[in-house]
Amino acid sequence: MTSLPRITPPCTPRSFSAAAVYGPYPPRELTSTWNQVKFPQRINPLAPPPPRRRINSSWETTPQHWHNDRRRIMMQQREHERYHSAWTKPYYGPPADKEAYRRHFREVLKQQMADSDEKKRRDFEIKLHESESIVEYDRQCKLQDFQNIIDKYNYLKHFRDENKTFMEGTWEKSRTDKMLTDRYDREILRYNPINWSGTLS
Fold it and tell me: At the top level of its lineage, which domain of life is listed (predicted)?
């Protein structure tokens, strides 16, 4: 039994060169400052102190909330500084920074266009492969249907011929039996006639 061809969902993986293009904005090369300070991890205000016990809201303390709030403010300040430094370059930066800013967006646009072309090419190849698979599957189905029709025709023809042979044999046997029966009756009448005295006319 033939099965339908498997259709592959379209998916286009990103190239290695596009990893920096599709990263968070602004990128590292467009910012004048980049804070490398590692921010402290967030503290769960309801985390029980050692020894570990059942979590209770009474263990919630102010220093834990102050720590998380200070961490949030530091991260917001860094993001604001990054965006502001990238925004000021094309307007107030030196010519080299302005050119670097424009070059970045040109490269981003070129990479996006290349990725779009690659995606279209891969989609076309996938659709072409699916079309070829479907055409081949349709051809196999037609051949199978044609073979089934031939097999059915041969089976019905053989069935008809066998019935015809059987009926002809039955008819021939009936004629032979009738002929033998008539011959036997004539012989009986010959040696033992019904009107043996000849009085009946």
Answer: Eukaryota
30 neighbors 101 (Cβ within 8 angstroms): yes
Q: What whole-number distance in Å separates Cα of residue 163 and Cα of residue 169?
A: 10
What is the CB neighbour count within 10 angstroms for residue 104? 19
CA 21 – CA 106 distance, rounded (Å): 11
User: How many CA atoms within 13 Å lie on the side-chain side of 105?
Assistant: 8
Structure token pair of residue 160: 């008809």
pLDDT digit string (tens) for 91-120? 888 898 888 888 888 988 999 899 999 999
Average pLDDT in the chain: 80
Rounded CA separation 135/148 (Å): 20
Total-model pTM:
0.49
d(C-alpha 92, C-alpha 106), whole Å: 20
Q: Are 42 and 133 in contact (CB under 8 A)?
A: no
Domain positions in the chain: 62-92
Contact, 82 vs 33, CB < 8 A?
yes
Cβ count near 50 (within 10 Å): 5
Q: Are 55 and 47 in contact (CB under 8 A)?
A: yes
CB–CB of 129/6 below 8 Å? no
Contact assessment for residue 136 and residue 35, using Cβ atoms and an 8 Å cutoff = no
